[in-house]
Design goal:
Structural class: mainly alpha
Radius of gyration: 18 Å
Largest sheet: none
Order of helices and strands: HHHHHHHHH
Number of strands: 0
Number of helices: 9
Distance between the termini: 46 Å
């Protein structure tokens, strides 16, 4: 995809997230999205089928990144909780602008719930033969950890000055260490 197409898709995505601050996805028209960013509907439909299609794309990109985190754990590239949260910090920082726009939208809770579900499922797929800090994690513990982690990172996304990223990740390391009985 050429740079112009990438910039156009980025404008479309950001505009949708901006509109989601005040409206539900069902009440946002394609015309609403196109009008303010100076594109026509035909251009929009070149990239997306609907406004929901944009949210699905954002979610699917997150799923790919979550799967990468799982793979990094499995291959041993992330061998500690500190490494895991450093990787997570980099992942969140890379897409922070989108997350901050999404945090202001009416779709945020739905989005967070889908992320929590997916992340917990991916963590529990790590085989027990794997020698990692998340090996043989049961579903209940995984959901508990993931909902806490997601909640703390959501605080950072909503108020980064009040909850700095390093503070959030170090707090997560401490909590996870205790729950998973990892010596520090």
């Amino acid at each position: 995809m050429d740079q112009r197409s990438i910039r156009t898709k980025d404008k479309i995505r950001k505009k949708l997230l901006e509109l989601l601050k005040t409206d539900n996805i069902e009440s946002i028209s394609i015309t609403d999205i196109c009008k303010d960013i100076g594109i026509n509907r035909k251009t929009f439909y070149r990239y997306y089928k609907s406004a929901n299609d944009i949210l699905e794309e954002l979610f699917n990109e997150l799923i790919v990144d979550i799967s990468k985190i799982r793979i990094e754990i499995l291959v041993g590239s992330i061998g500690s909780l500190e490494g895991f949260f450093a990787y997570l910090n980099e992942f969140i920082s890379r897409n922070l602008e989108y997350y901050q726009l999404l945090a202001q939208s009416k779709q945020y809770i739905i989005f967070i719930n889908r992320i929590e579900q997916t992340f917990a499922d991916k963590l529990t797929e790590i085989p027990t033969s794997s020698i990692t800090f998340f090996a043989s994690l049961d579903k209940i513990t995984a959901y508990f950890l993931v909902s806490g982690i997601a909640s703390l990172y959501a605080r950072f996304i909503q108020e980064p000055q009040k909850y700095p990223l390093e503070y959030v990740s170090s707090t997560c390391v401490k909590i996870c260490s205790k729950i998973l009985n990892i010596e520090r």
